[in-house]
Amino acid sequence: MAISRRTGRTGRSRLTLAICVLISLVALTLNYRGSGVVDGVRGGALDLIGPLRDGADRVTRPVTDAWHGITGYDDLEAENAQLRAQVDELRRQLLENEGEAQRYQELVDLLDVSRLGDLDVVAARVVSPAPSNFDLSVEIDRGTADGVREGHPVVAGGGLLVGTVVQAGRSRSMVRLLTDPSFRAGVVLPSTGAIATVHGHGRGDQPTLEHLAATVEVNEGDVVKTSGARGSQYPPDLIVGRVSAVDRAPGAVELGVRVEPAAEVEQVTYVQVVRWTPSS
Amino acid sequence: MDPQLLSSPWVRVPPVLLTLVVLQLTLVAGMPLFRTTADLLLLAAVAAALVAGPERGAVLGLVFGFAYDLVLQTPFGLSALTSCLVAYAVGRVRVGMLQPVWWVAPAATVVASAAGIGLYAALATVLGEVDLLERRLLVTMAVVGVLNGVWGLVVRPVVRWSLAGDAAATTAVVR
Fold this sequence. Notes:
heterodimer; A: alpha+beta; 6-stranded antiparallel barrel; 6-stranded antiparallel beta barrel; globular; B: mainly alpha; Arp2/3 complex 21 kDa subunit ARPC3; 75% helix; 0% strand
């Protein structure tokens, strides 16, 4: 009797599991078919949870700050030393490039090239860090009410690519970071004119360049910018980063190129959303 | 108000779920270890399975997973699928033990959390989302296991409390 009851319970629990799996698969199907239902529900959740998150953030901020102080002390020291070196380097470059800036401005005016300064941007604050280990998206405090739309590029420091808006609620938006494994963007290496695709690899890993023929001459330190090619989601000349490593494997068709992002994408606090669409 | 109603999971689980989501997005996301954060919603699914057995564990895993999916930009339903499968497996193991000892719940939390992360990465890769089966995945699994083990000291009693009024849950597990 006890055995049959237990068997019956097992059968019922398997049926329940099957129904749960089926519901999950239906949700995944809706997601992959690009159903507006999923986007609508997610946008609603973003606006609904936003105020609660703000309140909780104010309460928990001292704890997370203390945590960062404890676990990130060594990193901070190293970063401090690196920043001092960068300041010295930038001072030197500033002195060298004083005349260059004026010539560049004259050239840009002459060629009527659009720059970030000409684009319509809205400033935003990052209100929440990446919520999961596999989803490198951050939340910003601007939404459709501020003219933010899905697909808008997000930059820091006046032109350093941070990511792209993937979900826009009324007053909040989610930005997929450059380092997210599903991030891709068309880029160009101005030093050679080579076109490639930059591809994120998750936390702690630098993005890489894809579709770069092994014959292309690429060197460490080369700047990588958005190409702004026809149909591209990004305007031209947003700075992605610098080449940090080049792997020329014998017999390989493509180069293995790592890129160090120019912006501190996972620690950035203030950003600008570029209200730009390919047609504009 | 009826005290029986107040102890019902229908009343207790929603605020617990909302609190866990908000904590995941703020406190937990702001406290990474080796660039890895705990996964409170997966932990809650495991805790529910330990308390309520495989059947209710799977259902609650589905609910917790969907709640997490709502605030992520990963495929909608992927966390739900992972959580319900992990919770079912934990529930089955728990039911199969005639006399569970004290360390079963903490150990199950650590192992199931790590396994859940691995399962999530495998499913994401099978679905063609991105290739998450990289060397770093092992680090992520290990750190999530440890962090969830620590957070489990808080989350497991809360989940147990939220399901305390569920008669079916309290009889589901062989004690």
